[in-house]
Amino acid sequence: MAEEVKAHITGVVFQITAKAGDAVAAGDPVIVLESMKMEIPVEAPRAGTVKEITVAEGQTVQEGDTVAVLQ
Amino acid sequence: MLSSVLVANRGEIARRIIRACRSLGIRSVAVYSEADRAWPFVAEADEAVAIGPAPPRESYLDIERILDAARRAGVEAVHPGYGFLSENWRFARACEQAGFIFVGPSWQVIQQMGDKVEARRLMAAASVPVVPGSEGTVDTLEAAGDAASRIGYPILLKAAAGGGGIGMMRVAEEAALAAAVASAQRRAQSAFGSGALFIERFLQAPRHVEVQVFGDGHGPLVHLHERECSIQRRHQKLIEESPAPNLPATVKARLTEAAVAGGKAVGYVNAGTMEFVVAGVEFYFLEMNTRLQVEHPVTEEVTGLDLVQAQLRVAAGEPLQWKQDEIRQRGWSIECRIYAEDPARGFLPSPGRLARLTLPAGLGIRLECGVAEGVEVSVHYDPLLAKLVASGATRDEAIARTTVALDGFVVEGVKTVIPFLQRVVRSAAFRAGSVHTQMVEQGAFDG
Prior knowledge:
The complex is a heterodimer of chains A (about 70) and B (about 450). Chain A contains no helices and 8 strands.
């Protein structure tokens, strides 16, 4: 079942660390956000395969926004 | 005296510099990004120049845009504040080459002290104790392994090209070294443009004590006593005070003597800070910050001297009227940094619109505040909103005033570290003055 990975803070997408088709374990970073001079990874909530990364580097995301979809 | 100064910074430190300019009759010029248009420092300066979009690389870190603003405003000098370009020797050199006075030391000294390996070498040569560590940079994993086993685990990996805890990693054992080196190199490369690392012994539960120094290029370099800055998270300070509690007089005397010797060795001019770690009666040089320090107000409060005014006077070529034996510490002063971070979620950043802000006041209370109600606290910048500086005749009095003032803040719209600071200042360990740099991450103040 598809599951959305949501940003837990507001920030700017600093780095995308996984791509569609990648297998991830629970806790693996999917993207890294930069906020207030800190780099904060957004982690996969469970193991799965990345279906889609829904943000681009440099994009601002709000807390609660979807950044990726797992399947 | 200088006629005009461009303030190449934002937030509370921009306001602090603008205030010092005004008190000396200097015209102040602010620069600001699109995100900061409504921030108080922009309205407070005599003039303000827009320099670009919110991301720092396109505004506050863009040397050419700042120099352009300085030319357009026709200023005589540039004050870099702290952070941003303040310790960038290329910026200091570019100011000089463009004909502006840089309010700070020479670019050559910034370059020397910015290279943390070179700084260690220079300080050791001036008989300032340095943390046992690698001779120079460790350029291969093999060299790192050799140095680490000679020094003894646990060790600290540090970036040669920068400080502030960025790229710094503790390594407990040889098995973890390879991964740590790779990660520290990557972070150092991204932050400082160089992945070069060096190694220091990891000290258990040290204190962070620093000494404010000041040179005017005329008379002898002086010190303005010490600050204790051990309450930190992510190697960044949360609470600072002067004097340092429970610092034996003999240690303090050796510390200030070493700080002055170190500053003299590089011919230091303007305000600078020699940072040390103190373990028992031993102390070691960490790094020198070649700029005004965030926590300079506690030194101002106990010495009665205005450091920012002094920076501007020295930049204008004036000699300071300070004599070492007349610079005394009177009473006690404590600074709390009010960050927009959520202490309940591991100090995660908490940007947003500042819906409500009430600041505490009272005897012995000084606020250095960058924000006003209604401003947007941006994801693009440091989370420092304000600094609470509470002073009293004794440490107990300063703590009591800090405690009451922290309870008097009202901040809505963003989370702040105030609940955490309230626990720290009420804790037995802090009240006893028995603190060290690893306490916060060890959970000593978790509620």
